[in-house]
Amino acid sequence: MPFFSKPLPGYSGRFGVGAVDIEIPAENQKIIGRAIFKSNNKAALQLETVLFTLYYPSIKTSSDLQRQRRHYWIPRPIFLVATGYACFAHISSVLINSIFALILWTLAGSTQIPAVVEAPVLGSQSVEDSAIDLDADIRKQNWTDKFPVIVFSHGMAGMRTSYSQYCGELASRGYVVAAIEHRDGSGPGTVIQRQNAKDRRILHIAFDQVKAEDGERYLAEDFKMDQKAFRSAEVEETIIVLRKLYSGHGSSIAKLNTRAEGATVLVDFENRLDLSNIIIAGHSYGATLAMQTLSKSPNPRLPFKGAIILDPGKRSGKLNEDVKVPTLIINSGSWSRDPAFFNHVKALTQRIMDKSNGGKAWFLTLLHTAHPSVTDAPLIEPWLLNYATGASLDVEIALKAYVDISNDFLHFVTSRENEVRRNLRNGISDPDGELVRREQDLKQDLTDPSRIRRAGIGPNLVTPAPASKEKGGPRWAIHVVPLVGSHETLEYDD
Predict the structure, then answer these.
(1) What counts of helices (H) and strands (E) characterise the chain?
(2) Residues 458-473: pLDDT tens digits?
(3) Which stretches does DSSP call E strand in 11-131?
(4) DSSP, res 112
(5) Alpha carbon distance 379, 373 (integer Å)
(6) How far is CA 79 from the centre of its chain?
């Protein structure tokens, strides 16, 4: 383990977590959009394969099995990822790329994701040989039932591994999560592995690298639309693979998998995926994509019954308003501090609530958090990330809060009774974002000497008082909740 980072913690749910990387040829291979590279006139967005990590419930294993293989948090080759981040910063060169690679290796090069690669699927035949002491309530339930499914889309500069804790925690609570690696140029770097063909490497694609193939006007917004169309196609391909797994084609998927994983476990997903309860989730750019996939959803290609939207992108294009399924929108504290964007998301949530199934939509802010709080990065580098972002809520508490409220929403969408659990039963506490802005004002009061001088706070009138790290439980500012009947809001029950 590197000296300058922390290991990712184990998952807290009652199940163990397995993971399999799956990359197979796309059924509908095609060029998407009009973008071509200025350097060689080749298509910028070419769909060849789909790659995702499948997180799934397993059994908690013995200490010997705990030493089984795990995926690295930074996918290999590290130099490719480092080069991509240098491209993001517009400072890429052989020297800079090498420096970035050294930094990545030092900070998190040996960090591993806690999920066990190819662990037995919960309820499969091989579980009896691997299980240790299962709780009595687990033993007496039928764990050959179907797992609800979540398809997760990462944000700009992210990868399929960037949210392994969030995805793995949900898997430890009984869900199957397909975390997609998008090849639209929004990530730092990725390798397309093809059968009987040379690997193809993709780096981050900046807008100034591309032009329209027809020579017509091509704006940054046009490129974003093409990127989102590409991501949407990858989501469709992921659904195709999940349906094949359910239909008993796990063995053929394993043979096509260029990541050489899953031969022993993919067959065990036959009749085990609840494809009538698929949820789309995403963060930032991925949240914007998630909302886009809900246009005219559910439909056969994108059969989503609900959505979890985490910090929808501010600069990733217009947010889709044609949403008719239950939706949970969660902002970090930093994301809700922009009044104009806050009001836009609030109005959007209210429109979704008017259209969605049963009028169910929530909009909340997790106070004392920042945009990266739902990712793995603050868990690995808590001091660096908190200093850089200003987040003060303990990183593990913040991540658990995201998981717990997501779990309650998932239960609401996938349960037959549509039961609203505790975390979603609170009434509106902050309709206009005043709590969020008050939090920011307090931070400014504690760090701005002029404000300290005016207010007379702090240990003295010269040195600003440092903001204290939030060690208590999470605090939610609740902006929009569903209606009951025509006017009442759901109230909290102790």
Answers:
(1) 14, 16
(2) 322 222 333 445 456 8
(3) 16-31, 35-37, 46-58, 116-117
(4) B
(5) 9
(6) 24
What residues are paired with 17 via a beta bridge?
Answer: 57
The CA distance from 231 to 292, in Å, is: 10
Is 172:59 a contact under the CB 8 Å cutoff?
no
- The region, left, alpha or beta by phi > 0 then psi within -120 to 50, assigned to residue 357 is beta
Distance CA 332, CA 284 (A): 11
Q: Please calculate the CA angle 109-114-118 and round it to the nearest 5 degrees.
A: 110
Alpha-carbon distance of 90 to 10, in angstroms, equals 36
Q: Which two tokens stand for residue 390?
A: 């200003």
Amino acid present at 39: S
DSSP 354-384: HHSGGG-EEEEEETT--GGGGSSHHHHSHHH
- List all residues 6 or more positions away from 460 whose beta carbon is below 8 Å from its beta carbon: none
Each residue of 204-232: pLDDT tens digit? 999 999 999 999 999 999 999 999 999 99
Omega of the bond prior to 77 within 30 degrees of 0, cis?
yes
Find how far residue 352's CA is from the centre of its chain: 21
Chain segment 127-180, per-residue pLDDT in tens: 555 555 455 445 544 556 899 999 999 999 999 999 999 999 999 999 999 999
Tell me the C-alpha distance between 463 and 468, whole Å.
15
Q: Is 116 helix (H, G, I), strand (E, B) or coil?
A: strand
Dihedrals phi, psi of 334, to nearest 5 degrees: -65, -30
Identify the three-state secondary structure at position 33: coil
* Residue 411 pLDDT class (50, 70, 90 cuts): very high
Annotate 425-464 with b (16+ C-beta within 10 A) or e (fewer): ebeeebeebebbbebeeebebbeeeebbeeeeebeeeeeb
